[in-house]
Amino acid sequence: MFQLHGAAADGAVVFRKKFTRSQFLRYMEAHRGCTLAMEACPGAHYWARELEKAGHVVKLISPQYVTPYVKRQKNDAADADAIAEAATRPQMRFVEPKTAQQQARAVVFRIRQKAVAQRIELVNSLRSHLYEFGYIAPVGLQHLPKLIQVLEDESNGLPVAARIACCSRMQQIKSLGAQISALDEQISEVSKKGHRAKRLQTMPGVGPITAMAIEAFAPPVETFRRGRDVAAWLGLVPQQNSSGGRARLGRVSKAGQHDIRRLLVIGAMTAIVGASRGGISEETWLGKLMSHKPRILVATALANKMARQIWAMLTKDENYRAPALAEA
Protein backbone atom coordinates (compact mmCIF):
# COMPACT_ATOMS: atom_id res chain seq x y z
CA MET A 1 0.00 0.00 0.00
CA PHE A 2 1.04 3.60 -0.66
CA GLN A 3 -0.13 6.35 1.69
CA LEU A 4 -0.19 9.83 0.15
CA HIS A 5 -0.32 13.09 2.09
CA GLY A 6 -0.90 16.13 -0.10
CA ALA A 7 0.17 19.49 1.30
CA ALA A 8 0.18 23.01 -0.07
CA ALA A 9 3.16 25.37 0.06
CA ASP A 10 2.01 26.73 3.42
CA GLY A 11 1.70 23.22 4.89
CA ALA A 12 -2.10 23.04 4.71
CA VAL A 13 -3.46 19.53 4.11
CA VAL A 14 -4.92 19.13 0.60
CA PHE A 15 -5.72 15.42 0.58
CA ARG A 16 -4.98 12.07 2.19
CA LYS A 17 -5.20 8.99 -0.01
CA LYS A 18 -4.24 5.30 0.07
CA PHE A 19 -3.44 3.33 -3.08
CA THR A 20 -2.25 -0.08 -4.16
CA ARG A 21 0.94 -0.30 -6.22
CA SER A 22 -0.79 -0.16 -9.63
CA GLN A 23 -3.27 2.51 -8.51
CA PHE A 24 -0.44 4.67 -7.19
CA LEU A 25 1.48 4.66 -10.47
CA ARG A 26 -1.64 5.44 -12.53
CA TYR A 27 -2.60 8.27 -10.18
CA MET A 28 0.87 9.86 -10.30
CA GLU A 29 1.06 9.57 -14.09
CA ALA A 30 -2.28 11.40 -14.37
CA HIS A 31 -1.36 13.97 -11.69
CA ARG A 32 0.32 17.19 -12.74
CA GLY A 33 3.99 17.58 -11.89
CA CYS A 34 4.73 18.21 -8.23
CA THR A 35 7.44 17.76 -5.62
CA LEU A 36 7.20 14.26 -4.16
CA ALA A 37 9.00 13.27 -0.95
CA MET A 38 9.58 9.65 0.09
CA GLU A 39 11.60 7.80 2.69
CA ALA A 40 14.83 6.33 1.34
CA CYS A 41 13.74 2.72 1.84
CA PRO A 42 14.11 -0.41 -0.35
CA GLY A 43 12.47 0.29 -3.70
CA ALA A 44 12.56 4.07 -3.22
CA HIS A 45 15.21 4.59 -5.91
CA TYR A 46 13.18 2.57 -8.42
CA TRP A 47 10.05 4.62 -7.69
CA ALA A 48 12.08 7.83 -7.87
CA ARG A 49 13.13 6.98 -11.41
CA GLU A 50 9.58 6.01 -12.43
CA LEU A 51 8.07 9.16 -10.93
CA GLU A 52 10.69 11.40 -12.53
CA LYS A 53 9.67 9.92 -15.89
CA ALA A 54 6.10 11.08 -15.09
CA GLY A 55 7.36 14.66 -14.65
CA HIS A 56 7.64 14.85 -10.86
CA VAL A 57 10.51 16.14 -8.74
CA VAL A 58 11.42 13.40 -6.25
CA LYS A 59 13.20 13.95 -2.94
CA LEU A 60 14.32 11.00 -0.81
CA ILE A 61 14.74 11.52 2.94
CA SER A 62 16.62 9.25 5.31
CA PRO A 63 14.19 7.65 7.83
CA GLN A 64 16.21 8.95 10.77
CA TYR A 65 15.43 12.52 9.69
CA VAL A 66 11.69 11.77 9.42
CA THR A 67 11.28 10.20 12.89
CA PRO A 68 11.38 13.52 14.85
CA TYR A 69 8.34 14.77 12.91
CA VAL A 70 6.08 11.78 13.66
CA LYS A 71 3.25 12.86 15.96
CA ARG A 72 2.35 10.35 18.70
CA GLN A 73 0.88 7.27 16.99
CA LYS A 74 2.89 5.28 14.45
CA ASN A 75 0.91 4.46 11.30
CA ASP A 76 1.14 5.04 7.56
CA ALA A 77 -0.87 8.26 7.62
CA ALA A 78 1.25 9.71 10.43
CA ASP A 79 4.44 8.70 8.59
CA ALA A 80 3.27 10.36 5.37
CA ASP A 81 2.41 13.53 7.33
CA ALA A 82 5.88 13.48 8.93
CA ILE A 83 7.60 13.05 5.55
CA ALA A 84 5.69 16.02 4.13
CA GLU A 85 6.63 18.10 7.16
CA ALA A 86 10.30 17.09 7.02
CA ALA A 87 10.53 17.82 3.28
CA THR A 88 9.55 21.47 3.85
CA ARG A 89 12.44 22.14 6.23
CA PRO A 90 14.95 24.49 4.52
CA GLN A 91 18.01 22.69 5.92
CA MET A 92 16.78 19.13 5.37
CA ARG A 93 19.28 16.71 3.83
CA PHE A 94 18.08 14.56 0.97
CA VAL A 95 19.37 11.33 -0.53
CA GLU A 96 20.35 11.46 -4.18
CA PRO A 97 18.28 8.90 -6.19
CA LYS A 98 20.48 6.18 -7.66
CA THR A 99 20.50 5.16 -11.29
CA ALA A 100 19.80 1.58 -12.35
CA GLN A 101 23.49 1.20 -13.22
CA GLN A 102 24.53 2.27 -9.72
CA GLN A 103 22.14 -0.21 -8.17
CA ALA A 104 23.47 -2.96 -10.46
CA ARG A 105 27.00 -2.30 -9.18
CA ALA A 106 25.68 -2.35 -5.62
CA VAL A 107 24.06 -5.75 -6.24
CA VAL A 108 27.36 -7.20 -7.51
CA PHE A 109 29.21 -5.75 -4.53
CA ARG A 110 26.67 -7.06 -1.98
CA ILE A 111 26.57 -10.55 -3.50
CA ARG A 112 30.36 -10.76 -3.40
CA GLN A 113 30.39 -9.47 0.18
CA LYS A 114 27.85 -12.12 1.21
CA ALA A 115 29.77 -14.89 -0.56
CA VAL A 116 32.99 -13.91 1.24
CA ALA A 117 31.22 -13.92 4.61
CA GLN A 118 29.67 -17.33 3.88
CA ARG A 119 33.04 -18.78 2.90
CA ILE A 120 34.62 -17.53 6.12
CA GLU A 121 31.77 -19.07 8.10
CA LEU A 122 32.14 -22.43 6.34
CA VAL A 123 35.93 -22.52 6.77
CA ASN A 124 35.61 -21.75 10.48
CA SER A 125 32.97 -24.46 10.92
CA LEU A 126 35.19 -26.99 9.12
CA ARG A 127 38.12 -26.06 11.35
CA SER A 128 35.98 -26.55 14.46
CA HIS A 129 34.66 -29.93 13.28
CA LEU A 130 38.13 -31.30 12.56
CA TYR A 131 39.40 -29.88 15.84
CA GLU A 132 37.02 -32.30 17.57
CA PHE A 133 39.22 -35.12 16.24
CA GLY A 134 42.53 -33.45 17.10
CA TYR A 135 43.33 -31.89 13.71
CA ILE A 136 44.25 -28.25 14.18
CA ALA A 137 44.77 -25.55 11.56
CA PRO A 138 45.47 -21.86 12.18
CA VAL A 139 42.84 -19.24 11.42
CA GLY A 140 42.91 -17.93 7.87
CA LEU A 141 42.01 -18.97 4.36
CA GLN A 142 45.67 -19.52 3.53
CA HIS A 143 45.69 -22.54 5.87
CA LEU A 144 42.82 -24.27 4.06
CA PRO A 145 45.22 -26.72 2.28
CA LYS A 146 46.03 -28.24 5.69
CA LEU A 147 42.35 -29.12 6.14
CA ILE A 148 42.17 -30.52 2.61
CA GLN A 149 45.19 -32.70 3.35
CA VAL A 150 43.47 -34.11 6.45
CA LEU A 151 40.34 -35.01 4.46
CA GLU A 152 42.30 -36.61 1.62
CA ASP A 153 44.38 -38.81 3.95
CA GLU A 154 42.25 -41.91 4.45
CA SER A 155 44.75 -43.50 6.84
CA ASN A 156 44.55 -40.85 9.58
CA GLY A 157 41.69 -42.49 11.47
CA LEU A 158 39.05 -39.84 10.79
CA PRO A 159 35.61 -41.55 10.96
CA VAL A 160 34.02 -42.16 7.58
CA ALA A 161 30.79 -40.33 8.44
CA ALA A 162 32.71 -37.25 9.54
CA ARG A 163 34.94 -37.40 6.47
CA ILE A 164 31.96 -37.53 4.09
CA ALA A 165 30.21 -34.62 5.85
CA CYS A 166 33.40 -32.51 5.94
CA CYS A 167 34.12 -33.23 2.26
CA SER A 168 30.65 -31.96 1.45
CA ARG A 169 31.44 -28.77 3.38
CA MET A 170 34.73 -28.47 1.49
CA GLN A 171 32.87 -28.64 -1.83
CA GLN A 172 30.68 -25.76 -0.68
CA ILE A 173 33.81 -23.74 0.17
CA LYS A 174 35.31 -24.44 -3.27
CA SER A 175 32.03 -23.49 -4.97
CA LEU A 176 31.93 -20.18 -3.10
CA GLY A 177 35.57 -19.58 -4.01
CA ALA A 178 34.72 -20.04 -7.69
CA GLN A 179 31.78 -17.60 -7.35
CA ILE A 180 33.98 -15.00 -5.66
CA SER A 181 36.64 -15.34 -8.38
CA ALA A 182 34.00 -14.86 -11.08
CA LEU A 183 32.63 -11.78 -9.31
CA ASP A 184 36.16 -10.39 -8.91
CA GLU A 185 36.69 -10.75 -12.67
CA GLN A 186 33.38 -9.01 -13.32
CA ILE A 187 34.30 -6.16 -10.97
CA SER A 188 37.72 -5.86 -12.59
CA GLU A 189 36.20 -5.64 -16.08
CA VAL A 190 33.67 -3.01 -14.98
CA SER A 191 36.42 -0.98 -13.28
CA LYS A 192 38.51 -0.99 -16.47
CA LYS A 193 35.64 0.45 -18.53
CA GLY A 194 34.50 3.17 -16.14
CA HIS A 195 36.22 6.56 -16.45
CA ARG A 196 35.81 7.40 -12.77
CA ALA A 197 36.80 3.92 -11.63
CA LYS A 198 40.06 4.06 -13.57
CA ARG A 199 40.80 7.51 -12.15
CA LEU A 200 40.16 6.36 -8.58
CA GLN A 201 42.54 3.42 -8.95
CA THR A 202 45.46 5.78 -9.59
CA MET A 203 45.42 6.43 -5.81
CA PRO A 204 47.52 4.04 -3.68
CA GLY A 205 45.26 1.82 -1.60
CA VAL A 206 42.27 2.03 -3.96
CA GLY A 207 41.59 -1.07 -6.05
CA PRO A 208 38.74 -2.24 -8.29
CA ILE A 209 36.47 -3.25 -5.38
CA THR A 210 36.88 0.08 -3.58
CA ALA A 211 36.36 1.98 -6.83
CA MET A 212 33.14 0.05 -7.51
CA ALA A 213 31.90 0.64 -3.96
CA ILE A 214 32.45 4.40 -4.36
CA GLU A 215 30.60 4.42 -7.67
CA ALA A 216 27.76 2.29 -6.31
CA PHE A 217 27.13 3.88 -2.91
CA ALA A 218 28.50 7.43 -2.98
CA PRO A 219 26.32 10.31 -4.19
CA PRO A 220 27.71 12.67 -6.86
CA VAL A 221 30.74 14.54 -5.49
CA GLU A 222 29.12 17.81 -6.56
CA THR A 223 26.73 17.46 -3.61
CA PHE A 224 29.66 17.99 -1.20
CA ARG A 225 31.07 21.49 -0.75
CA ARG A 226 34.55 20.31 0.27
CA GLY A 227 36.57 17.19 0.89
CA ARG A 228 35.99 17.26 4.63
CA ASP A 229 32.27 16.83 4.01
CA VAL A 230 33.03 13.53 2.25
CA ALA A 231 35.11 12.35 5.22
CA ALA A 232 32.32 13.37 7.60
CA TRP A 233 29.70 11.58 5.46
CA LEU A 234 31.81 8.42 5.66
CA GLY A 235 32.16 8.70 9.44
CA LEU A 236 35.94 9.25 9.37
CA VAL A 237 35.90 12.32 11.61
CA PRO A 238 35.82 12.53 15.44
CA GLN A 239 32.44 12.51 17.14
CA GLN A 240 31.64 15.84 18.78
CA ASN A 241 30.18 16.47 22.21
CA SER A 242 30.88 20.19 22.35
CA SER A 243 29.07 22.78 24.42
CA GLY A 244 29.64 26.22 25.89
CA GLY A 245 32.33 27.10 23.37
CA ARG A 246 34.48 24.15 24.47
CA ALA A 247 35.25 21.56 21.82
CA ARG A 248 35.15 17.94 22.99
CA LEU A 249 36.13 15.42 20.33
CA GLY A 250 35.70 11.71 20.89
CA ARG A 251 36.27 8.58 18.85
CA VAL A 252 35.68 8.28 15.13
CA SER A 253 31.93 8.62 14.57
CA LYS A 254 31.57 5.64 12.16
CA ALA A 255 28.39 7.27 10.88
CA GLY A 256 27.54 7.07 7.21
CA GLN A 257 28.42 4.61 4.46
CA HIS A 258 30.19 1.74 6.22
CA ASP A 259 31.26 -0.20 3.10
CA ILE A 260 33.34 2.61 1.63
CA ARG A 261 34.72 3.52 5.06
CA ARG A 262 35.85 -0.06 5.74
CA LEU A 263 37.49 -0.40 2.32
CA LEU A 264 39.30 2.94 2.65
CA VAL A 265 40.69 1.93 6.05
CA ILE A 266 41.83 -1.43 4.63
CA GLY A 267 43.37 0.36 1.64
CA ALA A 268 45.09 2.83 3.94
CA MET A 269 46.54 -0.03 6.00
CA THR A 270 47.81 -1.65 2.81
CA ALA A 271 49.41 1.63 1.71
CA ILE A 272 51.09 1.99 5.12
CA VAL A 273 52.49 -1.56 4.98
CA GLY A 274 53.79 -0.94 1.46
CA ALA A 275 55.39 2.36 2.45
CA SER A 276 56.93 0.80 5.57
CA ARG A 277 58.91 -1.68 3.47
CA GLY A 278 60.74 1.18 1.80
CA GLY A 279 61.12 3.13 5.03
CA ILE A 280 58.99 6.07 6.12
CA SER A 281 60.77 9.32 6.88
CA GLU A 282 59.91 10.76 10.29
CA GLU A 283 59.73 14.21 8.70
CA THR A 284 56.59 13.36 6.77
CA TRP A 285 53.02 13.62 8.00
CA LEU A 286 52.67 9.86 7.97
CA GLY A 287 56.01 9.29 9.66
CA LYS A 288 55.21 11.67 12.51
CA LEU A 289 51.90 9.92 13.15
CA MET A 290 53.42 6.44 13.12
CA SER A 291 56.10 7.46 15.58
CA HIS A 292 53.64 7.87 18.45
CA LYS A 293 50.23 6.52 17.34
CA PRO A 294 48.85 2.95 16.91
CA ARG A 295 48.84 1.68 13.33
CA ILE A 296 45.04 1.35 13.14
CA LEU A 297 44.64 4.98 14.22
CA VAL A 298 47.16 6.06 11.58
CA ALA A 299 45.25 4.03 8.98
CA THR A 300 41.99 5.77 9.94
CA ALA A 301 43.67 9.19 9.66
CA LEU A 302 45.08 8.23 6.25
CA ALA A 303 41.62 6.99 5.15
CA ASN A 304 40.25 10.42 6.11
CA LYS A 305 42.91 12.01 3.94
CA MET A 306 42.15 9.61 1.08
CA ALA A 307 38.45 10.56 1.22
CA ARG A 308 39.36 14.23 0.85
CA GLN A 309 41.74 13.47 -2.00
CA ILE A 310 39.09 11.41 -3.79
CA TRP A 311 36.76 14.42 -3.66
CA ALA A 312 39.51 16.63 -5.14
CA MET A 313 40.32 14.10 -7.88
CA LEU A 314 36.70 13.73 -8.99
CA THR A 315 35.76 17.41 -8.79
CA LYS A 316 38.89 18.52 -10.67
CA ASP A 317 38.79 15.51 -13.02
CA GLU A 318 42.44 14.71 -12.35
CA ASN A 319 44.39 11.57 -11.57
CA TYR A 320 46.19 11.11 -8.26
CA ARG A 321 49.31 13.28 -8.28
CA ALA A 322 50.32 13.99 -4.68
CA PRO A 323 53.09 11.78 -3.21
CA ALA A 324 51.97 9.05 -0.78
CA LEU A 325 54.19 10.51 1.96
CA ALA A 326 53.29 14.18 1.75
CA GLU A 327 55.26 16.63 3.82
CA ALA A 328 53.47 18.03 6.89
Q: What class, by secondary structure content?
A: mainly alpha
Q: Number of helical runs?
A: 13
Roughly how many Å apart are the termini?
A: 57 Å
General form: globular
Low-pLDDT runs: 324-328
- Average pLDDT score: 89
Structure, explained:
- The protein is 56% helix and 9% strand.
- α7 (160-193) packs across α9.
- The strands form three sheets. The chain has a two-stranded antiparallel ribbon with strand order 1-2. The chain has a two-stranded parallel ribbon with strand order 3-4.
- It has 13 helices and six strands.
- β5 (238-240) and β6 (249-252) form a beta hairpin.
- The chain is globular.
- With 328 residues, the protein is mainly alpha-helical.
- The chain folds into three domains: 2-87, no CATH class; 100-193; 201-316, no CATH class.
Question: What attributes does this structure have?
Answer:
328 residues; mainly alpha; 3 domains; two-stranded antiparallel ribbon; two-stranded parallel sheet; 13 helices; disordered C terminus
